[in-house]
């Protein structure tokens, strides 16, 4: 016989380490089971639901929401026998017709940039029409119907978590009436702490705090923004064999300090601004959030992904170009790519305040190194 108590350790999961070294997060049986059960208050599931798993099982997001939750409520989970490439995913979705898919922003952002956007910018006329709001909304709605068919036609919940979703892509999903949902949490919170179902989403926000969880904004500024602190049965025991770090991360009265910046709106919905560790302090004391600049950069021509860093007191954009599109348009010389990226730099600077202007662009010929949940390991490029 095996005796298991709620507070016994169930797993030690190492964080992805996007800003530094990985830490072993000690989660109890109660942390995981309680969080999975509470996710049901955001999106109820039953035995008619079909989950298609495309994320690493070692990540808390997929483990809690994609395994424990459906097991608790009798849903089916389908697994692929190979890495889920687009070529493999499409026929799988046609066969399985999933009602739930859990994803990270990178996946839906790539679908938008490689499959949706090119159709609306294939000619000068189409490109101009797409900039006209009523036409854009109509095109996006039509694209949304096609996207739903690609996913098997029965999708009810396309969950997005792990990092911030690009604003332009989210606008497309909303106008396409695609059933996306946003969640916020960390490995340390097993992971969900706040989130919405497809009927509750709002542009560039997360949603309500999950039932049974407490979230507060510590020391907010004039705009109501500050560090997100969390308390609840889903919060970890601590970091494995790191008592000093655990003590630094918790307040004396038990609040977990996330290191994320956020705020609540008038409807008490949470929105995330970025990580404290990635924030750059401008020359005159202004707070610069690189993730917001990267959102805009990633939507400029021939940009696949980017990181904004500080070099010698100025902002530099590290860019991995979209070489597939560049080769298709026969613009693959070093000079042509450099000219395109310089034009992108000038274009984005027209929309940015003086203190957050991009001074230089550095081109990378290989994709940035990523964590299992597809977040760029930023610390490698600082």
Give a brief rundown of this model.
By secondary structure, this protein is α/β, with parallel strands linked by helices.
Break the fold down into its secondary structure elements and pairings.
Elements: E1 9-14, E2 24-28, H1 29-39, E3 50-53, H2 60-72, E4 76-79, H3 86-96, E5 100-103, H4 105-120, H5 124-130, H6 133-150, E6 157-160, H7 167-175, E7 180-185, E8 192-195, E9 214-218, E10 226-231, E11 238-239, H8 243-249, E12 256-264, E13 270-275, E14 280-281, E15 287-288, H9 290-297, E16 303-311, E17 314-321, H10 323-328, H11 334-349, E18 358-363
Parallel strand pairs: 3-4, 3-5, 5-6, 6-7, 17-18
Antiparallel strand pairs: 1-2, 2-11, 7-8, 9-10, 10-12, 12-13, 14-15, 16-17
Total strands: the figure is 18
Q: What structural category characterises the helix and strand content? A: alpha/beta
Q: What does the overall shape look like? A: globular
**How many strands, what sense, and barrel or not for the largest sheet?**
6 strands, mixed
Round the Cα radius of gyration to an integer and report it: 21 Å
Order of helices and strands: EEHEHEHEHHHEHEEEEEHEEEEHEEHHE
Helix content: 25-40%
Strand content: 15-25%
- Supply the number of helical segments: 11
Termini separation comes to 52 Å
User: What ranges have pLDDT less than 50 throughout 5 or more consecutive residues?
Assistant: none
How are the strands of the largest sheet arranged? 4-3-5-6-7-8
Determine the mean pLDDT: 92
